[in-house]
Specification:
single chain, 65 residues, mainly alpha, 52% helix, 0% strand, elongated
């Protein structure tokens, strides 16, 4: 889970280039329905999952000690 947290923090500041270009060009996602990836509900659930994570690979600290 520390890797997911690191990716989440990195992509928050440095979104993938194809998403930035698509947003600048006004391209809408092709999702047919349901919840969009990155919606407030989805992100809140993801953050809760990361916050409640207590599992770290052997030899890796999750920063809680």
């Amino acid at each position: 889970m520390p890797q997911l947290r690191a990716f989440s923090e990195y992509f928050e500041e440095h979104p993938p280039l194809h998403l930035v270009v698509a947003a600048l060009a006004g391209v809408k996602p092709r999702r047919s329905g349901g919840e969009q990836i990155g919606s407030a509900t989805t992100m809140a659930a993801f953050e809760a999952l990361l916050a409640n994570s207590t599992v770290a690979p052997q030899g890796v600290s999750d920063g809680r000690s």
